[in-house]
Amino acid sequence: MNERALYNKPYLKKSWEELIMKKKYLALVLAASMVLGSLAGCGSSATTESSSVADTAAESTAAETTADTAAATTEAATEEAAASGEHGPSSEAAPAWEDYDARIAEIKAETDLAAREALMHEAEDELMSTWAILPIYYYNDVYMQSPEVDGIYYNLFGFKYFGFATAPDNVLPLQIASEPDKLDPALNSTVDGACLAILAFSGLYTYDENGQLAPDLAESYEMSEDGLTYTFTMKDGLKWSDGTPLTAADVEYSWNRLADPNTGADYAYLADAIAKNEDGTLAIEASEDGKTFTVNLVAPCAYFLDLCAFPAFYPVPQASVEGAEGYADNPGAWCTEAGFVSSGPMVCTAWTHNESMVYEKNPNYYNADAVTLDRIEFMLSEDDNAVWSAYNDGSLLFIDSIGTGNMAEAKTREDYYNIPTLGTYYAGFNVNSPIFEGKTVEQAANMRKAMCLLVDRQYIVDTIAQADQEVANTFIPTGMADGNGGEFRVNDDAYTYPDEENVGYYDPSSDADAMEAKRQEAISLLESAGYQFDESGMLSPETPINLTYLTNEGSGNEAIGAALQQDFAMIGINLTVETREWSVFLNERKDGQFDFAREGWLADYNDPINMLEMWTTDSGNNDMQFGR
Predict the structure, then answer these.
(1) Rounded Cα distance, 262 and 329, in Å
(2) Residue 407 CB neighbours (<10 A)
(3) pLDDT at 43
(4) pTM of the complete model
(5) I need a labelling partner for 469 at 20 to 30 A (CA). Which of 17, 50, 71, 221 fits?
(6) Nearest to 118 by CA among 495, 532, 599
(7) Residue 360 forms beta bridges with which residues?
(8) CA–CA separation, 410 vs 426, rounded Å?
(9) 274 DSSP β-pair partners
């Protein structure tokens, strides 16, 4: 590739300064190469060579027999080592993960807050020691909102509440993302999907315009003295959008459905805070009259009401869910088209896939008098330029996507908003990727650490993200509470980060001297993993590193892929960027069909366990494939 050839020049002491100055030009060149790469990505990611037609059938059979024998031997050795706890079950290069799973379980059961905080630091230490997580920056959220619109509010977790907004003629045209992956609250795992769930459904609790927890379907609750039992009293007269009664029995059904493995919910692990009956169902109970709902917890849980406000715990209508065509094969089949039964401020009345959605006021919503909008019209698009144009010509009054090329102008305008959130934009390595074959656990971790050190995070923030984000050197973000009355990402008497000065796991500085030092460390780490370098500090052709970066469409995400490509190329690592449509990207990433992928996590509630429990072996959000 031309980009690779550019960086194969002899290395000079001042090359970091020169290459950093060239990045803006290179981004344009690499953007073009990424388009070709995304097309090429439709085929095999492996490099193939022609085979000799002179091979005889006998030679082929013998080779296959030998290969099968070797594969069986390797598989047996892998299984034996995995059973001993030396590495993961699928790869000799993947870390063993039983201790991490056990630590997360211990955190959830720990009632001493100081001990719990210490365990969470240990968990993040173990997670970051794999170097499978490559933090880039801590999230904030930017959007454009017309002065004609009022009443949209948000919380720290990226959720936006549109149901009580006001707009001209009581119609609000807006954009938050492209085609949603799933609308079933239990099956959704995206922020845009959560915003749609909040609009169409209700939970026991919600967040108000001040970001504070407030009763929603629940009128009130009582908690036992030991903090293990919650009893909710439901509001009177609750109804589904079709007019049928909504009771505590619907909540009981929906929470058990979330926890049921047959549902396949990514967030099923959140229900682990709740005690279980002998038959595996949750220790929850609706009263016969449907008026009260009782929950028994495993241990006191400071964020339990946050779970009650989280979309995965929203009740869904059993009759609609189980009566839908295709239910046996797809638990979310009931809400894949407009017209599904819901319980929130609005109902979905029209859906032209990959183009638009319409939500209209729900007359059976318990707080319908507070809803002034008649309609919300969603543009479903990831085309940043089209979205920007539609906003500027007045076709849209709110947009949640601002392309890289439009950020400079957006930031000068009064209708630009930059709000705080709790989360981390990062990239991640599949620990079972073939790029780590033949390496030990330590060598694979050194490979990932080397690539982590090469990333110029400040360049990404300044020239691509452009929203004054803070560069990241931890997974748990700045500002997250520690569950013990303080902030988690600090050095204190009880815990000090490995890089004490930078309060994290590495120095994220991007000046030339710092980057050169990290470059030399990266070379040493790769040499320890068996890679060879020439005199100019470039990887030898005898030991290449070729990997792909999977990302979704969007100018910012694609540009970050190009920046990573440049950074890795500085020592000869060949990174190919492959782009996918949103829902395809989500499923390929979830299934582990990648080497290296774009990631981002906005906290679901303000406690570090939320950023840690997602990496347990059986978590539906464990994209890095730990323990698998």
Answers:
(1) 10
(2) 19
(3) 35
(4) 0.84
(5) 17
(6) 495
(7) 347, 375
(8) 24
(9) 297
